Amino acid sequence: MSDLRLTTPPAPEERRRVLRDALGSIVVGWHPLAENVLGADARIDWVGRDGQGRCVIVMVGRGGDDLALVARGLAQRDWVAARIPDWIQLAPHAGMRPDAEVRVVLLAPHFQPAALAAARAVGPGTLRLGLLRFVENGVGVGALIEALSPTGQAESPAREGGGFRSGLSPADLDLTAEERAEFDVPDPE
Question: For the chain, which residues make up each domain, given as ranges?
Fold first, then answer.
């Protein structure tokens, strides 16, 4: 196995490609619907939905612009929320619920205390913050996303019943004992 090492973020198109599937580690049931969408006055990296049919927008920021990222995320949330009925009409099979609130996931290399306080002030469930790092493993570049609690502490992955960060359990995936051992997931009792 190759050694992992931190690397600089790739160009925007490559970054979106690398992150597209990795977002499932912070959004349970992630299903991307559109990427690089023109929003209120800037681009939104992704518009998608979670496993419960809620619209989720994802925006990626650079180091040092975390407080501005929170403000842009809230502005884009408002812009997207006003258009959900139209999007459902255009793509009725996308699985978005018209009555659900729009969630926002903001990813950045770090979040300063002011950005964390602003995110907490919005209230629970609206904003989800995650630390974003890119690693090179000898084969290519991958993304590491570490979810933050409202206090700015890294959240430990949920492992209730031996589950994965995605919320799925080994039973959901029909894993064999060997496969569970490979993922360091205990056998069901």
Answer: 5-153, 157-189
Please report, to the nearest 10 degrees, the dihedral formed by the alpha carbons of residues 140, 141, 142, 147 taken in order.
170
Task: Tell whether pTM > 0.85.
Answer: no
- Model pLDDT for residues 152-184, shown as the tens digit of each residue: 777 755 433 444 544 454 444 555 555 555 555
Helices (H), the chain: 12-22, 66-81, 84-90, 113-122, 170-173, 177-182
Largest CA distance in the chain: 53
Alpha-carbon distance of 39 to 21, in angstroms, equals 22
Q: What is the pLDDT of residues 10-37, one digit of tens each?
A: 888 888 888 988 999 999 999 999 999 9
Say yes or no: domain 5-153 is CATH 3.30.540.10: no
DSSP string, 141-161: EEEEEEEB-TTSPBPPPP-GG
Of 76, 73, 31, nearest in space to 54 by CA: 31
Contacts of 19 (CB under 8 A, 6+ apart): 45, 58, 60, 107, 132, 143, 145
Neighbours of 106 (CB within 10 A): 25
Tens-digit pLDDT profile for residues 77-135:
999 999 999 989 998 899 999 888 999 999 999 999 999 999 999 988 899 999 999 98
